[in-house]
Amino acid sequence: MSNLWKVKADNFINEKESIMRTGNMFQISNGYMGYRGTLDEFGSEQLVGITLAGIFDQVGDAWREPINAPNGAYTKLVVDGISVSALKTEIISHTQQISLSNALFERDTLFAVNNKQVQVKSKRFLSAETPNLMVVEYSFSTNVDAEISVNTGIDYNVWDLNGPHLVDIEANKSNNMLTVIAKTHELGKKLAVAELIDYAEGDEQHLISNNLNLRLISIKAKAGNTYTFYKYVAVVKQGDPFKGSKKNAAIELVSVALQKGFSSNFEAHNAQWAKKWEKCDVKIEGDDEAQLALRYSIFQLLMVAPVKGSANSIPARALSGQVYKGAIFWDTEMFMFPFFVYTYPEVAIELLKYRINTLDGARRKAASEGIGYRGAFYAWESQETGDDACTYFNIGDPHTGRDLRTHFRDKQIHISGDVAVAMWEYFKLTTDDSLLRNGGAEVILECARFYYSYAYYKKDKDRYELLDVIGPDEYHERVNNNIFTNKIASETFRVALDAVNYLKENFASDLDALLAKIEIANEIPLFQEAFEKLYLPQPDKETGVIEQFDAYYKLEDATVEDVKSRVIHPNEYLGAGQGVAVQTQVIKQADAIMMLNLFKEHYSHEVKKANWEFYEPRTEHGSSLSACAYALVAADIGKSEWAYKYFLKTAKLDLEAKYKVYVGTIFMGGSHPAANGGAWMATIFGFAGVKAYSNKVSINPKLYDKWKSLSFNLSYKGDNFAIKITPDETTVQSLGSNIASHKFVLGEKEFVCDPGRKIETKY
Ligand code: BGC
Question: CA-to-CA distance for 722 and 708, rounded, in angstroms?
Fold first, then answer.
């Protein structure tokens, strides 16, 4: 397999910061849990983290965050009484790698222990077939005979940012099975980890000490022999679909896994991964750098796709740890969801079910924020109930150590529209109306109701306005009529009306039941009025630029460099009350440009160009969500080099792991699935120029010069297509298994693509 399917490090840098970044880069995940890319012998100080999806806990007043599970993969060798670790032992060589084809983590380290050479190799994967299961193959050999103890078991010294989250911990060994059970501190949710091991040779003793539930397996190792251990670890938490106790479920899972053996577990895992790639790989010919970065980005998304039926969503730092409270932001609907809905709609539906399940939380938030609103105001930082985990003082000031009042939670109202628009997009692109009929339409209507309740009607201007908000640009808080916010609210009214019409025509009784349930029938005409009269800031007649919010032009026209030069502390936040960007036109991230990307067909080429040229030099890109929006609009307006530059920036973010890890006093290290989704969008929507509508798919390629071809798959209305774009031709192959004919517009030409048919157009 070529190196475009692997990411590898050839050395080990024994520094805290490097261990943290490597842990992010080499993490693996299966949607149920993530496992950071740390070494077998590492512990909580090296940020070993097995972060679980969908379970949260709070200790005291500290931030509520996801649970990290005890580490059942822990293994350390003791050679002639000397404990071996990459942190202390001399290393002759070290490699670690991750395979993008199947999320397999591998390490290979040659240690010098006294005068002996000891080689440690391990492989681990989180089963893509059995989400609760982790499997490890660990082997070692020495060049001289040695007395070895393999200390392996479950380490329950758990790394937490705001813990400890696990209480009433009990460690046990019974019938060769190691277990650790615990409860969460806040809600008493149960958790169990079980570990079983398979090996050929050695005498085993059991020890519980220093929060380690350990097997000590002694072996008189012969020079040149390889000794191999297979570990099967299961994590089960409350809410998982098992009958009986969590402990018994975990025991059962590892017992079955041990019986199947490593190879058979691995084959089942690989088969699942092969299916994922079959749908989702994108091939770029002629540019290995872009290919690897894009594939790594897609890989990150595939790894963290929620488990089927879990109705979990994807946190802003995926499952790479507890950063950002493990919370779900607009990142998911606006930056990750497009990838899934265009390639893997089975996952897209889970993401949206999560929003349906948390609708009550959004209702509670609407009712309790500010002057009290109606409808659904989704959490800025959403956890399992949909109540907002974002605090009113969400960033620490490194100068004073005090927390700064931020209004992300109470004023960033575009979140509800982001959810509503994604809900409709799913229906439009899949024609699957099950979601709409089972909560989706209710979400959309409640979001429209929220905007109606938030909006002000200006009688003198005969229009609705949205005052006192934050747009995506978080450096400017409490502004009026932010273009992104107003546009997404306007679209929310539109999709609410469309949803009502669709249900009226097709499921009239469902609609009646819904309107009665949420008592909203009288408000539908108001949504129509609000849609018609909501103020949308317009492009300036002369310049074409849309003012990001009222009176933005009155702010100081400083450069990004000017603003940065005013910073006193390197981790200082540029926004909030006194941030150095607040009084200037320097923005944190794509705002008007994100809007122009989302609604690109509503604006002319000239307007998009004028805005891109105006806002690009004013954008600090203080968020990983920014670069992709600039890449997308740059591709759209034919600024190919800029599109490529911003594409690479977003695609390489996690692969290079050079991002900033502190904002204010807050640790932000971890992966960036929104940027990963942005890399896919920049490629498919940007360079391939794909846009799907309810009645057609249009493909308007803007292939980057260096690329010889771009090939990918699309899912549209339940059918699948293989697409290839070269500098002189676009080909669309409708798969033979497809059911319906669909309209494609390639450049200017319109085609109907029947099942099994290939259409091509030359330029
Ligand atoms: C960005 C938000 C984003 C959040 C999580 C912030 O820095 O400004 O737009 O949702 O990070 O990624």
Answer: 17
